[in-house]
Amino acid sequence: MSTRLLLLALPPIAVLLIASLLVQLMVERDRETVDQKAAERLTLYRQTILGEYEKYRYLPYMLARDPRATVVLNMGRPTESANRFLEEVAEKSGADLLFVMDRQGRTLAASNWRDELSLVGQSYAYRPYFHTALKGEEGQFFAIGATLGEPGLFLSLPSPVSGEPDGVAVVKVDMEPLEQAWAKGGETVFASDANGVIFLASVADWRYRTLQELSDDVRSQITATRQYADQPLTALSQNPRGTEKVVTVDGRTYRHNSAHVGLLGWTLHFLVPIEETRKNIWPIWASAIGLSLLYFVGLLIQRGRVLRRASALLRQESQGLRELNQRLVDEVDERRRVEEELRNAQRHLARSSRLAAVGQMSAAVAHELNQPLAALRMFVAGARKFLESGNVPAVEDNLKEIDSLQHRMATLTQELKRFARPAESRIEVVDLKNCIAAAEKIARSRFEEDSVNLDLRLSDGPLNLETAPLKVEQVLVNLLRNGADSAAKAEDGKVILEVDRQGESIVVSVSDNGAGVPTDLREKIFDPFFTTKLSNGGLGLGLSISDRIAEDLGGSLQVKPNATGGATFLFTLPAPEGAVRAATLEAETAVLEPEAE
């Protein structure tokens, strides 16, 4: 039951896993999209700041070189002409303030000389842009004005531009219009200085706050330059320098990107609410949960259908069972009648099988006894001739062969019974060469009658194996006689018997140069009573018996064509060397040790 529940839960689990993977992919894609958008917006904002800076960058240079502005440095006191000139330039250029200071930092001329809070007479020697200009360098410094209290970007150059400076020309640029443009854009963007103090921001409450807590040394430096007046400079976020990709400000989390404003040394920051990087995940989760719910609803509907179908099926089966019971009663009676007929048929079939087996065995006995009988005729004829010539030793040899053949015929009648019923045979260690020699003697008459040459190609050493020798001889005789019958039709009939050891097997090949076995008959030649030698009186049992003997001995019998166009029979016998040596040793020991009484 638990396995079934697990299988039913697999689809929604797979859906949720796929949804989780898609969510990760969508979040990553949204992050890349947000970062790409941020990079584009930061580039735009950076160009805007640099454009504003470049717009007024020339003014300090012009003032430092124009005698109408620098005349006050030569005179060492304010003049109305210089003030009027600076007022006119400020009006035409759009700059917030223009003023000129002497080497002590005292303002001698200013564009707001008419105002109540005029810069004329004020000293700004504590400002970094003043000291930078006295060193002969261009000064840039964002700060809250010490006199007017209005923030701006101060640009300064020494006067004269080259050589020993007599004073400093300063231009103040109002950055408030740029900040207002950021606010109207609806985006969260701000600029920080090298100390991490925010001085421009689209969110007004973030102005003059810091990205991290400032050290005492930094606070002392800012106080000394009066850069941000009396602002508390509290930390906006705990992320160091605002370099983290995710920052939290006033309890809200943002995706953070930044870019440096090279010429001014500022850093621009662009924040996107973290929700925008996850806006596409809720439809995915909603779809996944919806699909899972639909799946379970579908399971419930399917379950209801199955139950209704099962109920209807039970009703049908109840009716069917009643009908089936009646049919079963009828079938039991019919089965009893059929069983009685079957027993009668089996008795008749058993009798027919016994008669067929007797006929098959009789044919086999006649087939197998014809071979040794032919050899007997040859030995009897030879004995008569030897008696006529008075060659008694030769007669005795022939009588021994005749005795051996009659013993073999008696043994063959027992062995042929295995064609219809397997029986055990004596297994012993023999030299295969002896079996080949015995088979060659029996089949010799057939070779002489048909004028067929027999070529035995045997190795010098013994070919020991553990097997039933009479069975091996029976197979070899059948193969030799088949080879002789096939080669007899050739002009120069020849049969070659070769023996080869292949691993733990011995393969005896009997090849002839006869007409061979057609391809379509190779599967049939080992069937009982199949023969192609009807004119020679063959019964078709020799190869069938041989095939069965080879299988009983643990080997095989196969046929294949050879290079001469004839057939080659391969008789394979198992012959593991270790087992043969052990059996040989056991047999020799049994001979040397007398049996116990």
Automatic annotation (TrEMBL):
Coiled coil segments of this chain:
307-355
Q: Which Pfam families match?
A: dCache_1, HATPase_c, HisKA
> Where is the protein found, in the record's own terms?
Cell membrane
EC number of this enzyme: 2.7.13.3
- Keywords for this protein: ATP-binding, Cell membrane, Coiled coil, Kinase, Membrane, Nucleotide-binding, Phosphoprotein, Transferase, Transmembrane, Transmembrane helix, Two-component regulatory system
Q: Does the keyword Magnesium apply?
A: no
**Would the keyword Iron be found if you checked this record's keyword annotation?**
no
According to its UniProt record, which reaction does this protein catalyse?
Answer: ATP + protein L-histidine = ADP + protein N-phospho-L-histidine
Q: What broad class of enzyme is this? A: transferase
Q: How does it sit in the membrane?
A: Multi-pass membrane protein
Q: Which InterPro entries match?
A: dCache_1, HATPase_C_sf, HATPase_dom, His_kinase_dom, HisK_dim/P_dom, HisK_dim/P_sf, Sensor-like_sf, Sig_transdc_His_kin-like_C
- A molecular-function term among this protein's GO annotations: kinase activity
Specify the domain of life of the species encoding this protein: Bacteria
State the name under which the record lists this protein: histidine kinase
